[in-house]
Structures are given as C-alpha cells and as structure tokens.
Amino acid sequence: MRASQNTQAKAYWKENIRIVLSLLAIWFVVSFGMAILLVDVLDNIRFFGFKFGFWMAQQGSIFCFVILIFIYVRKMNRLDHKYGVDEDRDQYSQDDAYYDSKEPEQ
Q1: What total number of domains does the chain contain?
Q2: 103 in a domain, yes or no?
C-alpha cells in the first residue's frame, strides 16, 4: 500500500470509529441512562398516558436504536463516498459477461 493510500485509510478509519463511538454513546445514554438510571425522575413526566421513564425503557430506547441505525447508514454512505470506497465505484462484471467470455466445454 502506498503512503498516500495508507494515510487515507487511517483517516477513513479514524472517522469511522468516531461515528461508531458517538452513536454508541447516544445509545448508551438513551438505553441505560434514561431507562435505568433516570427512570424515577422521568416517571414524573407523562407521555401518551404512560410514565416517561417506563415508556423509554419499553419502547423509546428501541425507537432510538432504530433511528440510530438509519443515521449510521447515512453517515457511513457519506463517509464512503468522501473517501471513494462506496459501492457505486465498485468494478464488477455481470454474470452474463462472465459466462459469455468462457469458452464452451466439449
């Protein structure tokens, strides 16, 4: 690997890890912090007729996790495009082209 590619790869992985750690931190705060540590404080708030701490423990943390998945996909697609490693730039041959180029066996 050339030096410029190595530098680019390190920068890519540094940003990748930063994205993953930031989203995991948000997930930790929502799932552990709001649903376990702060549940008594949040239970003083009503949300759709339920205590908010209970709702966060049962439903809210799951919704947040699904939203984080979509955020992760979007951020990683942008990062891949920024560093030129996205799927749009993959070089592939279609199956038909592969089989057409082979000589028939006799």
Answers
A1: 1
A2: no
SS3 category, 91: coil
pTM, entire model:
0.72
- Candidates 29, 34, 19; CA nearest to 77 is 19
Of 23, 25, 27, 61, residue with least CA distance to 42: 61
pLDDT digits (tens, 9 = 90+) for 29-66: 988 888 888 888 888 888 888 888 888 888 888 999 99
Say if residue 21 is exposed, middle or buried (CB neighbours under 10 Å; 0-12, 13-18, 19+): exposed
Residue 92, CB half-sphere, CA atoms under 13 Å: how many?
7
In a domain, 59, yes or no: yes
Judge whether 102 lies within some domain: no
What SS3 state is found at 16?
helix
Spell out the residues 6+ positions from residue 32 whose beta carbon is closer than 8 angstroms to its own. Answer: none
State the Cα–Cα distance between residues 95 and 93, nearest whole angstrom.
6
